[in-house]
Amino acid sequence: METAHLIILLSNLLRYFLLAGIPFLIFYKLYKDSFVANKIQTRFAEQKDFMHEIRYSLLTTFILAGIAILLLHSPLKDYTQIYTDLSSYSLWWIPTSVALALILHDSYFYWMHRILHHPKLYKKAHLVHHKSINPSPWASYSFHFFEGVLEGMIAPLILFTIPMHPLSLLLFTIIAFLINVYGHLGYEIAPKWFRHSFLFQITNTSVHHNLHHEKFKGNYGLYFRVWDRVMKTEHPDYVKRYDLIQERRFGSASEGETMHG
Prior knowledge:
mainly alpha, disordered C terminus, globular
């Protein structure tokens, strides 16, 4: 294996074990008793559940690394919009391209996710991910091989359509995975003010995705609530469940906090 290929593989493995492992260590091991009020589902997953999540996440990590190698170190690179000269675009394009990539990824994920919930595809592929009824951070990449490939196809979609500097690409992969870990954390850690901000109306929370794992239907979005709300696929109990957990964390909700979101 060439050095560049090895670096991509090791960086993907490091991202998974650090960004999923540290939250797992904090919330599930070291400070488990300190975050009781934050726990979304009262029961805890078992060791065999964690091992299932890690095993399939490692498979997905290898798939994603393979796709990255093909895009960055094969003739396919000539078809990407990757640029290395920072002067090619204004510096503001760095955060803008990251934001556009997240929006594109969210749309891709929503529709791919809904398709995977078709009964035939669900049983053959997506069921692997839904074995985590009460997910932990380790579940962030826990996919069947087929779904892992579909998840990785967002990379060429982004790189063939959006000019991306390597710094933008790095920021996107880190932010995307951190949000993914948050969605599978099993604990709600959003601050109290978040409920009253416009961000609550458009972005997902850990409760939002956890409810999808618990109920198996609804809440298909990855980063945003927008597609779920437009397509009327958001679980009807989401806002109520979110408010109950925040009330448990911060005390009785004010009148404003109990209004529908």
